Amino acid sequence: MRHRDARNSPRASRFFLLLLTAVILGTLGCGSQPANNPITPLKIGVLPIVDALPMYVAEQEGYYREQGLQVELVLFPSALERDSAFVAGQVDGVLNDPVSAALLNKEGEKAKIVRLAFKGNPSMAMMVVLASPGSRIQSAGDLKGVAIGISKNSVIEYTTDRLLQRAGLSGAEIEKTEVTKIPVRAEMLAKDQIQAATLPEPLASLAELQGARRVVDDSKSGTGQSLITMRQQAVASNAEAIRRFLACYERAVNVINGSPNSYRDLMVDKGKVPDALKSSFNVPQFAKGQLPSRADVEDVVTWMVERKLLDQPIPYEKLVAEGLLPK
User: Fold this and answer.
1) What is each CA distance from 9 to 17, 19, 21, in whole angstroms?
2) Domain carrying residue 204
3) Cα dihedral sign for 179, 184, 186, 191?
4) Does residue 27 register a pLDDT over 70?
5) Which three-class secondary structure state does DSSP give residue 69?
6) Which of 8, 16, 144, 230 registers the highest number of CB atoms within 10 A of its CB?
7) Residues 6+ apart with CB under 8 A from 287
8) How far is CA 88 from CA 45, 81, 104, 226, 230, in A?
9) Which residues pair with 225 in a beta bridge?
10) Model confidence at 5, in pLDDT bands (50, 70, 90)?
């Protein structure tokens, strides 16, 4: 009687095929996504500003998809609407600033800073104090007692105070007037309806084209900063997705810094660069992966306590989340 080789039988072939499939599926399931920490979608609130460019580059280049991420960038027309959505849990994170991040934690530990996004540097200031075309203001000293257009209780007011204090003015010599909407502030400056104003880029450069004079900016001090801030709940329950998001963001920063002109059109579109600056406004250099420094955050908190925006200082450790940036 002849015996068939068991390895060649149809039943054995099916068994080995099933076994091989199980091994392959098991291997695929042993990646960086543990069963107790699933990857869930992320919603990130952004403003129409140049600072958001790396997030859009990561989206355009498919970096999120390569990391198995589903990231939705939710555009808000104002910081107030952005922060309201954050508080309501409608977004997992936001592109904001140290003043906003601290305010989100005023009533408890609800938000965590996970990365410095941008700060004023030689390639582009973030905040600029300007004099109107018809004024006689030439230096920071000339701003003594002059009402400077700002939005109060904001990173713009903080930056204005610190820039002018470092230029030699005392707190009592710095006068400010509330003009909340930035486009309105820029228009009032251009028309000499206010003698000075603090504007973010690229509106500061547009104001210069219209005759305003740059008095002082944060291109050397890095005083103005934007951040990526996540909900505490997202950090606790979806840390792996945040790590992958930050890895994509870092990759985008590297390609922008290496070839900035490749992303000019995207910057102009998403950052709402004014038409008059489309061909001349440079793509800035973005900060490498880092958290804002302890000294910078503590200075903002001190300023906020002095102005009674916070009842008491918030420790640095309660504002930032370490260990999420790519190594």
Assistant:
1) 12, 15, 18
2) 127-217
3) negative
4) no
5) coil
6) 230
7) 116, 117, 118, 119, 121, 253
8) 12, 10, 11, 21, 13
9) 119
10) very low
The predicted structure's pLDDT at residue 246: 98
Q: In whole angstroms, what is the distance from residue 69 CA to residue 71 CA?
A: 6
pLDDT range class, residue 38, cuts 50, 70, 90: low
For residue 234, is it within any domain? yes
Dihedral over Cα of 27, 28, 30, 31: its sign: positive
Confirm if 87 and 45 have CB atoms less than 8 A apart. no
> Is the confidence at residue 236, as pLDDT, over 70?
yes
Q: Residue ranges of the alpha helices (H) in 123-214?
A: 155-166, 182-190, 203-209
Closest C-alpha to 128, from 260, 267, 223 = 223
DSSP state for residue 67 in the 8-state scheme:
T
Query: What's the domain count of the chain?
Result: 2
Q: Is residue 183 part of a domain?
A: yes
Considering the domain architecture, whether residues 89 and 157 belong to the same structural domain is answered as: no
| The last residue of a domain, from among 217, 251, 285 | 217
Q: Residue 326: CB partners within 8 Å, gap ≥ 6?
A: 243, 246, 247, 250, 289
With 0-12 / 13-18 / 19 or more C-beta atoms within 10 angstroms meaning exposed / middle / buried, residue 183 is exposed
Helix axis angle, 294-306 relative to 155-166, nearest 10°? Answer: 100
